[in-house]
Amino acid sequence: MGAEGPIGMVLGSGLGAFAESLENRFETPYRDIAGWPPSTAEGHAGKLVTGRASGREVVVLSGRAHLYEGYTAQEVVVGMRELAKRGAQSVILTNAAGGINLAYQPGDLVLISDHINLTGANPLTGPNDDELGPRFPDMCEAYSVAYREIARQTGEEMSLHLREGVYCGMRGPSYETPAEIRFLRAIGADLVGMSTVPEVIAANHMGMKVLGLSCVTNMAAGILPGKLVHSDVLQIASRMQDTLVKLLHALVTRLG
Ligand code: HPA
Fold first, then answer.
1. Looking at CB atoms within 10 Å, which of 48, 64, 103, 141 has the fewest?
2. Ligand 1 center to residue 52 CA distance, Å?
3. Domains contained in the chain, CATH given
4. Residues linked to residue 29 through DSSP beta bridges, in sequence order
């Protein structure tokens, strides 16, 4: 599939274990990279990690910047720009998400098929850098169909049933209201989260191929009794990590 450089990766909330599993690991804390906005969210390690996974070069963002931390959309995608600078033409983005689709359950892994941007922000706002990509990038296949098919097959071989769905990106940091979740379901969203969308826009602008993988850490607001708590999100994410690490290792050898 022609991707020569390393595979880029972004590890979401509570999902940093893959970075620790690399051989020849080299870590650079974000604070040591000029111009990098520091990551502050609980559960985010905040470092760039390079190394080899199952024989393939990878460059990993372990922890990300979010709009809800007060960063601009342009700051949020500094990491994605760094992955591209280091030669990544393919990127796997992971996140923790709330399940809107009633067929989902906490613990499910979902391949993102498309997204809805309700963050109110776009990282390409402002003058376009023509060196990076076009003014008006196409988003018809923001999440590679071919990569999704490879991931689905890989999952099957591992006896993992990977679901597929549309991710809706919100600004946060408050969780959604039950009425908002009913609205998101009505407009076609299966998953909701506070990340990924700005990065995927920047990746597509730069011509990178994207695989998006959501870990359903909770059912979205109003679906089940009880409140949404970040510590529960991190707990479910950490329980899913072993499976996710195995899947990511299998995927890096097969994508591109
Ligand atoms: N809503 C928004 N973001 C999230 C959720 C949610 O329910 N779960 C994990 N990240």
1. 103
2. 31
3. 7-252 (3.40.50.1580)
4. 47
Residues with a CB atom less than 6 Å from ligand 1: 96-98, 170, 175-176, 192-194, 217-218, 220, 228, 233
Cα–Cα nearest to 179, from 220, 213, 150: 220
Centroid of ligand 1 to alpha carbon of 164 (angstroms): 17
Please name which of 166, 174, 157 lies closest in space to residue 228, comparing C-alpha atoms.
Answer: 174
CA angle 83, 84, 87 (to 5 degrees): 95
Burial code (b: 16+ CB inside 10 Å, e: under 16) for 166-178 equals: bbbbbebeebbee
Distance 178 CA to ligand 1 centre (A): 12
Closest CA to 255 of 7, 12, 71: 7
Confidence tier at 135 by pLDDT (50, 70, 90) = very high
Highest mean pLDDT among 28-37, 47-56, 199-208: 199-208
Name the helix (H) or strand (E) containing 79. Answer: helix 78-85
